[in-house]
Amino acid sequence: MPSFSSPVLRSDILALLRCPVTGSALVQKGDELVASAQAPDGTVPRYPIEDGIPVLLPPVQH
Length: 62
Description:
By secondary structure, this protein is mostly beta strands. It has one helix at 11-14, and strands spanning 26-29, 32-35, 46-50, 53-54.
């Protein structure tokens, strides 16, 4: 029986996606997409994949 714990995005879809904060390419690491560049504050943005759908919302600034 297949495991659905970490959905893998197709490479052609992943090649189109960009980080909304840095504009850089995204790399899938487990159940997250990780930006390939640092944000202006020095952090590396990470985005969850929920039910096979990347949630590419930038973090809320307080």
